Amino acid sequence: MTTSAARFVSVFPALIRLDLRTDHAGEFGAVQIYQGALAAARIRQALGLNIEGGRMAEFAQHHMETEQQHLDVMLQLVPPSDRTRLLPLWRGMALALGFFPSLLGPRQLYWTIAAVETFVEQHYLEQIEKLQRDHILPELCALLVKLKEDEVEHRDEAVIALFGHKDAHEARHPSGTARAWMRIVEAGSVAAVEASKIV
Fold first, then answer.
1. Is the pLDDT of residue 94 over 90?
2. How far apart are CA 55 and CA 76, in angstroms?
């Protein structure tokens, strides 16, 4: 962590540092999700199942690069002593979350990303509203707004990949299987956030 970043972090209230702890865990997990997706894409290609012409791999690679940038930011904002000790567990679970849906096919990956990013948008929004309500840390608030916008863009790109446009009715009102999967992903995300605050 740079000296300037360390001075910036030192003024964070305890609750804000706890929120950032979960943000670091989330961005760490996001990188793993896309690494899992890329591994599955390579297997599908080796099996001759690359029917989407490599678009799934391009999607995962592009998003992973953005998530790595987010993680780099969080590495500056969250010192090692503040990070959750559950990162090895989150690594395995996030790799699986990216790998197994992607192994089934691109649509399964896109639904997974839509679910994850819908949760992440709300997670960042709650932090932004808290900072705005309390009129504190405007620089951090602006940073979280930018991160949230990137996550919303990822969600929209997943929906576009599914339905051709981001405002598709099917994305807002998914069918039974997709709706059930999105609820599972959301529940897992909520549990990971809460666990990361404690351990």
1. yes
2. 32
Q: CA Rg, the chain, in Å?
A: 17
Q: pLDDT at residue 34 above 50?
A: yes
Burial of 65 (0-12, 13-18, 19+ CB in 10 A): exposed
Quote the CA–CA distance of 171 and 162 in Å, as a whole number. 8
CA 109 to chain CA mean position, Å: 13
Residue 54 has pLDDT above 90, yes or no: no
Distance CA 109, CA 103 (A): 8
Kindly state the tokens that stand for 97: 């979350």
- Nearest CA among 26, 39, 37 for reference residue 71: 26
CB atoms within 10 A of CB 154: 23
